[in-house]
Amino acid sequence: CVTLDVQAACRDTTVTQELLKEGFHRDLLVKVELGEDAGGCAVAAQVRLPPGIYVDPYELATLQQHNLTKAVLFPDVIDVEAPEYLARGVVLLLFLEPEARRSRCFRATVPVHARYHRPAEGTWEALVALGSPEVLLCCCHGHLSAECWEPAEVDTPCSSDTTSPCQWYSTKHRPASEESVLRVPVGLREHSSLVCALTLLTTGLCSGLILAAACKYGHFS
């Protein structure tokens, strides 16, 4: 019975995430409701982003300068121009802010962007799935339930504003009820020959027009 009570208490922590807006440029909203009071604790969500989606570090730096979002990227150097099949996954540590009237509820939003994918066969879209985030706490008072929280290997401060080390703790929780899926438009592989032919034709036509204009209006010594 004790074991069941402990498991029930630990499962009280819930996390949800949503992809807002449409298209290649979205907002990732993460909300966490803790099963116990976390007064004085820093709360964060560790999100593993697959290669098909990324956070722009330059955009993130601008948002942090205006105190709109607080987050850390691992690694912090990201090729924002790379397509999905040449990119690597990254880890986003997103610091959450408490809600005004609910002391156990925390939330944060960060812009995310879809990468271009290879042309597919028989479908107009590629699916990029986001797994449920890991909930992390960093507390000064150290009053966390030992049966629910355990030390996490996260090498970052308790706040994006400080540089001093911090011990984070993770918990088992109910995952997001629905997996967040980003649908990315892709080209059809069957159209490759047509696209190549039209591209060559357009390139040749434009080059011819430029050459004709240069010959007509150019001044050659």
UniProtKB/TrEMBL annotation:
<dbReference type="Pfam" id="PF08320">
    <property type="entry name" value="PIG-X"/>
</dbReference>
<keyword id="KW-0472">Membrane</keyword>
<protein>
    <recommendedName>
        <fullName>Phosphatidylinositol-glycan biosynthesis class X protein</fullName>
    </recommendedName>
</protein>
<comment type="similarity">
    <text>Belongs to the PIGX family.</text>
</comment>
<dbReference type="GO" id="GO:0006506">
    <property type="term" value="P:GPI anchor biosynthetic process"/>
</dbReference>
<keyword id="KW-0812">Transmembrane</keyword>
<keyword id="KW-0325">Glycoprotein</keyword>
<keyword id="KW-0337">GPI-anchor biosynthesis</keyword>
<dbReference type="InterPro" id="IPR013233">
    <property type="entry name" value="PIG-X/PBN1"/>
</dbReference>
<comment type="function">
    <text>Stabilizing subunit of the glycosylphosphatidylinositol-mannosyltransferase I complex which catalyzes the transfer of the first mannose, via an alpha-1,4 bond from a dolichol-phosphate-mannose (Dol-P-Man) to the glucosaminyl acyl phosphatidylinositol (GlcN-(acyl)PI) intermediate to generate alpha-D-Man-(1-&gt;4)-alpha-D-GlcN-(1-&gt;6)-(1-radyl,2-acyl-sn-glycero-3-phospho)-2-acyl-inositol and participates in the sixth step of the glycosylphosphatidylinositol-anchor biosynthesis. Probably acts by stabilizing the mannosyltransferase PIGM.</text>
</comment>
<dbReference type="InterPro" id="IPR040039">
    <property type="entry name" value="PIGX"/>
</dbReference>
<keyword id="KW-1133">Transmembrane helix</keyword>
<dbReference type="GO" id="GO:0005789">
    <property type="term" value="C:endoplasmic reticulum membrane"/>
</dbReference>
<comment type="pathway">
    <text>Glycolipid biosynthesis; glycosylphosphatidylinositol-anchor biosynthesis.</text>
</comment>
<keyword id="KW-0256">Endoplasmic reticulum</keyword>
